Amino acid sequence: MPVIDYRHVDIHIDSKIILEDVTFALEQGEFAYILGAVGSGKSSLLKTLYGEVDIERGDAVVLEDFNLLKLKNKRLQQLRKKLGIVFQDFQLLTDRSVYDNLDFVLRCTGWKSFDDRKERINQVLELVGLPDKGYKHPHELSGGEQQRIAIARAILNRPAILLADEPTGNLDNETGDYIMSLLHGISRTEGMAVLMVTHNEHWLSRYPATVYRCEKKRFVKLV
To answer: Which residues on adjacent β-strands are paired with residue 53?
Structure first.
């Protein structure tokens, strides 16, 4: 079973049609890009996956067990714990250290043991190549380092799906290349499906994967 299964989905915001008849599936460990112009519906589609934008009609199932058209609030919170989300602007807590940013997420998602939290934080910092940055505050890090911490935060709970909304949008090409390599590596080694919104088509040739495009209110598979 795919981890995301959309069939003939319509997405409206304030009675305006954003996308219609969206049909696609994402398998475990698969990496996929979503391309499209500004305002074409890329981010809105991503937001339907974690319940920030409603689905008007169709069938939409995530992780086999979550029907997005019928989710009550408690079930929505359960789903969100199984998703990792990376944004363009990092959204780190600026008044806390890197370690405390990550520990905050773990405590909020039910990790009771201090030793277990510490071990997991060390694991994800190692995975993103920043094992010695836990004591730093976000303003002491470069943009690329902040995004790597944001990725570490997103994968703390070993999500089955990682959603990335323009994760290289605020980064220079060299730093963006490192982030792309990191995301593809995590997808392979952790068996994590990654759905990434991007406007940078350069990544498609350097890091090949499934490609979709939002255009004229449609969602089209290119590769």
So the answer is: none
pLDDT tens string 73-90? 889 989 998 999 998 888
Closest CA to 141 of 198, 101, 199: 101
**What local confidence, expressed as pLDDT, does residue 17 receive?**
93
- Using DSSP bridges, classify how beta strands 66-67 and 161-165 pair: parallel, antiparallel or unpaired: unpaired
Question: What is the tally of structural domains in the chain?
Answer: 1
Asked whether residue 197 is assigned to any structural domain, the reply reads yes
pLDDT digits (tens, 9 = 90+) for 199-213: 889 999 999 999 999
Domain that holds residue 105: 30-51+81-221
pLDDT at 91 over 90: no
| Residue 85 domain flag | yes
Would you say the pTM of this structure is higher than 0.90?
yes
Looking up residue 198, the CATH number of its domain turns out to be: 3.40.50.300
16 forms beta bridges with 13
| CA distances to 115, 117, 136, 213 from 100, in Å | 14, 11, 10, 38
Q: Which residues pair with 35 in a beta bridge?
A: 213
The answer as to whether 157 is a domain residue is yes
